[in-house]
């Protein structure tokens, strides 16, 4: 068996398989992703197949899930890029073989199993079709199909599941959070412009009660936002420290971004994936400054925008920042704010004058943190800089964000400084989808959410139950029955179609046996049946029909059409969400998207089911 | 700044720090564990510290959690080994520096920050104390303390949290499951002998109703097991495919084992950590055998134990297995079992005759799977082999396991085969702690649990909230206040003691300020106070006092006393659990373990709290 010649990107081609280009397929991002990253039973089964000479029988496997996570109506498919890297480099090392040979469970195995079979095994006989990475996917529709000899087809099962399950789960979670953060709909366009805010020119509404005006302005109604401003908070991933170890964190960063997040705090993800990173400072930074003396000498060069583009003036003198800050403190009568905190903000300001964003809840959010931020902001602004905002990490985020916004707007009028209208209010502290929805209902002034634990751990449902099932062997369809109806398999190799309606939205997905000649066609009526419930059926005249799988890996030629890029996939996710029925995106009790089988497939499934089920006897 | 000379194991020594031995400290298990595996705000803070010349101020940090996971009363500390590897190899690569220099947020930073500071930074000025890996730990008692200059002390925060949070969480989860699986108490001894069962000589109890006898025999009562047999099911980790990617799975395997699991299905974990692995076959294996013809030629060499040790006879003829199986099928009148399944079991038997364990729920557990297993087992046993058991992966595990056990015992009598009494009944399918407790109540005959999803994702609480806090800088204690009382910090550098009572069990943990001269001593009365609630206090006369932290990393000498071994740590966990008050191990509403402060520390904390809190004005 020769190695797969295609450890390279293939040139893109409409036909799919073509000659390979020079660019080699990278190895998996994680050095643990090797053929041994699998369950032992894959190896014991491989031996039993080999021993009984079944290992080369042609087989067909489907990787799919049975239920959408988070009580939702859809799942985003992710992880394909790492699957392709794994397949392209699949090889047991000599060291791996040595280990297996000495494993107690395998020590009795015939040497030829290791020497002739495992040692020479690669994926040159494996053919993989898959949905496009980032696709909205639905229960029972395969994400990936594998056509391969029984032995190798089985040996890759666990690794494929590992590489798809969590990425798909966290991408879906991220997407749901982004949808929730933005209110009802998500209509971001590529390039992600900053969130629209009230312009500096339009003075914010006021009312006699200090906050009522602002609260009202972003109150949600059943139908969506009634805000006079179009506020679309962004989401940033902060979860590394709470993830399942280093790689859990890395995967979380990557696939949250793919699902619509704007950035991650994870520097390594930024480096390895070329994605935006974000971060400013922590409580410890504030605590570490114990007195104002520590920043007495902190100086800053004034900044003057020239010709529309900000450039630093070279000749200007460095200016001490603290005296300006203290003058404002005196003038505003805010002498009681925490000195250490004020020192920390001054220290941060001279280090990051162009991106000054402070965590304000170390001692007291409104009495100390907010005021200290304003003092340093005014001084920075005097020197020509535009402060960026604040972060809240505890307390009532709705109340505090509105209160801060109110004070900012008050300061904008009092001091005639427009930047106060444009400040970011970042909120973190155990944010999840339910908190986002609750904040929308309460009203808030948050422009950016930092989400960690609940994003990366997928707290609401920490695992996606993807499975990898044998559906055909020797061209014979195989079924798996079970005491649990949910675990019954739709047997045989199938082709999947997405049928679109006149409105341009997907109507349903349809599974058709491969041998069936009658395929769905645009403009032609097709009967679509629920796979298990006889009474559920619907006739569809699709306006457009899209086949969901394409060839992505061909053993002989390796990876076809190159690896999907994260940016492209992210945009694809966004496009799909924007063309999805609103009821499918609903948080509570979303609509259900139909996954159907054709008339013939329905009958075929039920006949095989009958044949394979023994009739029980009760006495 | 020179590199830490101690990238080696130090020789064990009572005093702690000694000369290094030759064995180098390995690099972290995961190639992603580098200084860049951190949040961006650690780097921006480092710059602000450097820029304001604070980066070399001596500081002290504590890594701790605020709440036990899973509603429990304890947490197992894990992950220290990888922390030490990370510290020993901490160095930004040239490539890392290049990336940081070009990061938009850092592009304005002075070149000297990269060239002089980051490029030369390592952990040679870092001193780390820690609890022993595997320790039972309690809220607010530091797991790890770091004494280091402010800059580097901060830069390692996120990575340390990532390396401790998940390992500790999953080890705790595993330990709780092991305790639950075994009934009330866990008293395993080292070497882990197989579970005690009814011996072959004692015939099992019978009753007129087919199952009542067995059900009753393992019924649980409030006080624990009343079983006539001492049944202690084992737990095996099956979670790789549902973990947070490859490394999530790898960490899960390692730390579940540490927490008391017996094996993992993860082959790579077996190879890299030298831990037991387990696995047999999946549904797909059964499905792939389509007819009996496929195993018509399957032969096996009879096996005869000689001189107490099993050895294969070399000269004996190979025997066809299928005819023997079919004869039993005919004799027992079980012609209706599924042929493909029977073929698969025959195929598995000739491949693994000494460890024959079958998954029996592919078509119908009791009517087909169980009977096919028995048929092949009888044939195998005729040839001198001892079959191992069955696995159930769906349905009512209590009912099915008891039913299978009943049939096994019936077969044992009917065919006079003792092996039927010793078969393993493995159960999998969404097992969690609550299911284990429920199975104990219902009664079951399961001897081994395969636990995947709920173990590795820690479904019941998917994150442990470890934090890393600055408690002292320039020898001044630092406090962090918060709108959330729970987030208030106990300031200053503290020493932690575990006070044991006369019964040999721990009574409470006591935190004492480092400067305090009055330390707890065996036999002397000490007043222990709740850190926040004035009224809660208790006087303790400890029989034994153990200081909880010891030096584990000294910048100048590297890792002190070597890395903890997984096996030793596992034993240490076991020993502690066996010496813990039973109420602390309870599933529902466990007792609370006290974490106290000394009288002086109490007053010091409350005074600092007052000083740093601004007095709010309400008008």
Automatic annotation (TrEMBL), chains A, B:
Keyword list, A-Z: Ligase, Magnesium, Manganese, Metal-binding, Phosphoprotein, Pyridine nucleotide biosynthesis, Transferase
Boundaries of every Nicotinate/nicotinamide phosphoribosyltransferase domain copy: 234-487
Low complexity: compositionally biased ranges: 192-206
Gene3D superfamilies from the UniProt entry: Aldolase class I, nicotinate phosphoribosyltransferase
Sequence segments annotated as region (Disordered): 189-218
CDD domains xrefs: NAPRTase_A
Gene Ontology molecular-function annotations: metal ion binding; nicotinate phosphoribosyltransferase activity; transferase activity
GO biological process per UniProt: pyridine nucleotide biosynthetic process
Pathway(s) annotated for this protein in UniProt: Cofactor biosynthesis; NAD(+) biosynthesis; nicotinate D-ribonucleotide from nicotinate: step 1/1
Matches recorded under InterPro entries: Aldolase_TIM, N/Namide_PRibTrfase, NAPRTase_C, NAPRTase_N, Nic_PRibTrfase-Fam, Nicotinate_pribotase-like_C
Domain Nicotinate phosphoribosyltransferase N-terminal: residue ranges: 36-165
EC number of the protein: 6.3.4.21
All residue ranges annotated as the Nicotinate phosphoribosyltransferase C-terminal domain in the record: 493-604
One Pfam assignment: NAPRTase
Function: Catalyzes the first step in the biosynthesis of NAD from nicotinic acid, the ATP-dependent synthesis of beta-nicotinate D-ribonucleotide from nicotinate and 5-phospho-D-ribose 1-phosphate. Helps prevent cellular oxidative stress via its role in NAD biosynthesis.
Protein name: nicotinate phosphoribosyltransferase
């Amino acid at each position: 068996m020769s190695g797969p010649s295609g450890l390279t990107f293939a040139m893109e081609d409409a036909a799919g398989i073509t000659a390979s280009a020079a660019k080699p397929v990278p190895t998996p991002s994680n050095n643990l992703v090797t053929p041994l990253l699998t369950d032992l039973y894959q190896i014991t089964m491989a031996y039993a197949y080999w021993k009984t000479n079944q290992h080369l029988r042609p087989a067909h496997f489907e990787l799919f899930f049975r239920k959408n996570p988070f009580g939702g109506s859809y799942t985003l498919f992710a992880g394909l890029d790492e699957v392709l890297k794994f397949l392209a480099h699949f090889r047991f090392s000599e060291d791996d073989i040595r280990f297996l040979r000495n494993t107690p469970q395998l020590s009795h195995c015939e040497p030829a199993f290791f020497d002739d079979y495992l040692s020479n095994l690669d994926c040159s006989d494996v053919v993989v079709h898959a949905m496009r990475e980032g696709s909205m996917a639905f229960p029972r529709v395969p994400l990936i199909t594998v056509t391969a000899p029984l032995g190798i087809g089985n040996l890759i099962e666990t690794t494929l599941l590992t590489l798809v399950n969590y990425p798909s789960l966290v991408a879906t979670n991220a997407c749901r959070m982004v949808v929730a953060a933005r209110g009802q709909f998500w209509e971001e366009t590529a390039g992600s412009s900053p969130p629209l805010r009230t312009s500096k020119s339009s003075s914010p509404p006021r009312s006699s009660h200090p906050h009522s005006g602002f609260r009202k302005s972003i109150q949600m109604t059943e139908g969506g936002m009634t805000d006079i401003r179009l506020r679309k908070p962004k989401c940033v991933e902060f979860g590394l420290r709470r993830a399942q170890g280093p790689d859990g964190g890395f995967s979380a960063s990557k696939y949250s971004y793919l699902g619509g997040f704007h950035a991650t705090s994870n520097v390594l993800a930024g480096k390895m994936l070329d994605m935006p990173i974000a971060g400013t400072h922590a409580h410890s930074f504030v605590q570490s400054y114990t007195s104002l003396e520590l920043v007495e000498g902190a100086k800053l060069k004034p900044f003057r925008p020239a010709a529309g583009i900000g450039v630093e003036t070279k000749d200007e003198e460095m200016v001490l920042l603290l005296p300006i800050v203290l003058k404002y403190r005196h003038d505003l009568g805010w002498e009681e704010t925490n000195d250490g905190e004020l020192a920390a903000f001054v220290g941060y300001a001279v280090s990051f004058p162009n991106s000054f964003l402070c965590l304000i809840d170390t001692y007291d959010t409104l009495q100390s943190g907010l005021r200290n931020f304003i003092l340093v902001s005014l001084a920075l602004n005097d020197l020509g800089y535009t402060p960026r905002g604040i972060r809240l990490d505890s307390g009532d985020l709705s109340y505090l964000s509105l209160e801060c916004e109110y004070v900012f707007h008050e300061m904008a009028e009092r001091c005639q400084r427009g930047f106060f209208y444009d400040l970011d209010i970042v909120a973190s502290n155990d944010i999840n989808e339910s908190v986002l929805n609750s904040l929308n209902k309460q009203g808030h002034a948050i422009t950016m959410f930092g989400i960690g634990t609940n994003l990366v751990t997928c707290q609401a449902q920490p695992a996606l139950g993807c499975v990898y099932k044998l559906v055909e062997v020797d061209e014979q369809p195989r079924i798996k029955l079970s005491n649990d109806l949910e675990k019954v398999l739709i047997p045989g190799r199938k082709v999947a179609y997405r049928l679109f309606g006149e409105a341009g939205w997907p109507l349903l997905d349809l599974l058709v046996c491969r041998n069936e000649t009658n395929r769905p066609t645009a403009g032609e009526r097709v009967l679509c049946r629920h796979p298990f419930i006889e009474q559920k059926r619907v006739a569809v005249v699709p306006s457009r029909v899209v086949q969901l799988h394409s060839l992505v890996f061909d053993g002989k030629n390796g990876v076809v059409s190159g690896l999907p890029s994260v940016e492209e996939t992210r945009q694809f996710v966004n496009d799909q969400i924007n063309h999805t029925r609103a009821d499918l995106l609903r948080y509570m009790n979303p609509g259900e998207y139909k996954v159907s089988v054709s008339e013939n497939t329905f009958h075929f499934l039920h006949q095989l089911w009958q044949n394979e089920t023994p009739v029980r006897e009760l006495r």
